[in-house]
């Protein structure tokens, strides 16, 4: 999971082209008082993928037989038998409930025989070690979290990091995995790491930018396992597959497996799947890397956009290219950024399954409307994005949208409604952004978008 990931995409300060307003009393009272309790999501709302089983089979093979680096894997691997999970290190309070909820989903939706064991139990198949973000970055600089085979601790990983012991290509069966998560990140970031890394410990090792509705995508739009992801994991543990199979052997069994698990996918036509070239991936990664200079990031984003244009893409990858350009130029040319966002919206509209992508886009365009003092437009853009963010269990995005909505209500004179929405957002903000200072910083950032009243 890339370190730059989700929260860097949510920053809105660069949108503020207008003078900062004096905060109304209701906003100041919230900012200065104790924050309300953290909110958490309850029932998951996964959506069955509406796509051809032929496309799903191709995705399955790409996810299992290739690493993110592009290196191919010789055989299929998974755990054979029940899987146990243990937690070590300094786990934050939110990890226990989120892990229990995820394991329940894996058992019920993916049919994986998996359970948590206590510290006194024999060594678990998957060890989740909660360490500091500094420790993770020292071990793998551009990672927020990661998974490694055949070790049980970060110290052991350091000892064997240059040996074949942790070489994914040498695996013929999965028996021992270690996941390293940050204990000093927001509850949402810890949960997001948990979902992606535990899923990769169990199954797919690759990330594919062509996937629209999956955590197995480095755009990090989806943060919790989707219906597509659960289907991939359920197919991974189908009885007719076993560790050590070649790509050809797995491919021969997939049609029957997917027909059984996803019968609706047999009647859908296959969509062309354009390969994502390495130069586009490299450009996107450079554009999103906060450790790279702003000018270089803008240049990389422009390169990614031109590559997408040259390839004549018309899917979410084309939209994402324009979205990145817009994000990186809106600080000095907000009007041009809005034109790129409009192009991104057009391609998202043409691509099924991009509702969450559009919710991110709505946050940017609504913020721009607020800087213009146009509360009505901001409210129209935010309204359809709110249930999408909620269903995707993205508290950071949900809180951001609600804080923007509160500003828009203030602009339209609906001060009591603004106050209620702002208060309601803070419980989600505590889960999404973590510490009180981070929540208050997000509040100040968004309140600064509202233009000062004219005399």
Structural class: mainly alpha
Distance between the termini: 49 Å
Biggest sheet, in brief?
5 strands, mixed
Strand content: 5-15%
What is the topology?
Blueprint: H1 7-10, H2 25-32, H3 53-64, E1 83-89, H4 95-109, E2 114-116, E3 126-131, H5 133-139, E4 146-149, H6 154-160, E5 177-182, H7 187-202, H8 227-236, H9 247-261, H10 278-288, H11 294-310, H12 316-329, H13 334-349, H14 355-371, H15 375-382, H16 385-391, H17 395-411, H18 415-433, H19 436-447
Parallel strand pairs: 1-2, 1-3, 3-5
Antiparallel strand pairs: 4-5
Helix pairs in contact: 3-9, 4-7, 10-11, 11-12, 12-13, 13-14, 14-15, 14-16, 14-17, 15-17, 16-17, 17-18, 17-19, 18-19
Structure description:
With about 450 residues, the protein is mainly alpha-helical. The protein folds into 2 domains: about 5-40 and about 275-445, Serine Threonine Protein Phosphatase 5, Tetratricopeptide repeat, CATH 1.25.40; about 55-265, 3-Layer(aba) Sandwich (Collagenase (Catalytic Domain)). The protein has 19 helices and 5 strands. It has helices at about 5-10, 25-30, 55-65, 95-110, 135-140, 155-160, 185-200, 225-235, 245-260, 280-290, 295-310, 315-330, 335-350, 355-370, 375-380, 385-390, 395-410, 415-435, 435-445; strands spanning about 85-90, 115, 125-130, 145-150, 175-180. It has a 5-stranded mixed β-sheet with strand order 2-1-3-5-4. Helix 16 runs antiparallel to helix 17. It is globular. About 45% of the residues are buried.
């Amino acid at each position: 999971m890339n370190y730059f990931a989700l929260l860097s995409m949510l920053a809105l300060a660069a949108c503020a082209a207008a003078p900062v307003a004096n905060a109304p009393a209701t906003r100041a009272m919230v900012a200065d008082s104790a924050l309300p309790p953290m909110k958490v999501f309850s029932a998951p709302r996964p959506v069955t993928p509406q796509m051809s089983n032929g496309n799903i089979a191709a995705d399955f093979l790409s996810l299992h037989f290739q690493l993110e680096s592009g290196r191919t894997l010789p055989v299929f691997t998974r755990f054979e038998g029940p899987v146990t999970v243990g937690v070590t290190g300094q786990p934050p309070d939110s990890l226990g409930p989120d892990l229990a909820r995820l394991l329940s989903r894996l058992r019920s939706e993916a049919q994986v025989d998996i359970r948590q064991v206590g510290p006194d139990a024999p060594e678990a198949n998957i060890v989740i070690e909660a360490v500091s973000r500094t420790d993770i970055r020292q071990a793998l600089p551009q990672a927020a979290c990661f998974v490694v085979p055949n070790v049980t601790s970060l110290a052991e990983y350091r000892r064997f990091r240059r040996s074949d012991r942790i070489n994914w290509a040498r695996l013929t069966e999965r028996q021992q995995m270690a996941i390293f998560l940050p204990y000093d990140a927001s509850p949402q970031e810890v949960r997001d790491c948990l979902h992606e890394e535990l899923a990769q410990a169990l199954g797919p090792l690759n990330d594919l930018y062509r996937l629209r509705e999956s955590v197995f995508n480095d755009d990090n739009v989806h943060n919790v396992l989707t219906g597509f992801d659960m289907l991939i994991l359920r197919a991974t543990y189908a009885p007719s597959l076993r560790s050590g199979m070649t790509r050809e052997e797995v491919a021969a069994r997939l049609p029957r497996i997917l027909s059984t698990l996803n019968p609706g996918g047999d009647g859908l036509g296959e969509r062309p799947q354009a390969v994502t070239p390495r130069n586009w991936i490299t450009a996107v990664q450079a554009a999103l890397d906060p450790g790279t200079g702003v000018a270089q990031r803008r240049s990389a984003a422009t390169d990614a956009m031109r590559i997408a244009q040259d390839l004549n893409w018309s899917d979410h990858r084309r939209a994402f290219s324009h979205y990145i350009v817009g994000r990186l130029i809106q600080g000095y040319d907000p009007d041009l950024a809005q034109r790129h966002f409009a192009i991104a919206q057009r391609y998202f509209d043409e691509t099924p399954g991009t509702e969450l992508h559009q919710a991110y886009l709505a946050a940017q365009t609504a913020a721009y409307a607020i800087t213009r003092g146009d509360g009505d437009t901001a409210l129209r853009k935010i309204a359809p994005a709110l249930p999408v963010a909620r269903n995707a269990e993205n508290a950071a995005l949900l809180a951001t949208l609600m804080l923007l909505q509160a500003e828009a209500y203030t602009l339209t004179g609906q001060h009591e409604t603004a106050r209620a929405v702002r208060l309601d957002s803070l419980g989600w903000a505590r889960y999404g952004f973590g510490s009180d200072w981070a929540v208050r910083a997000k509040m100040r950032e968004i309140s600064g978008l509202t233009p000062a009243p004219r005399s």
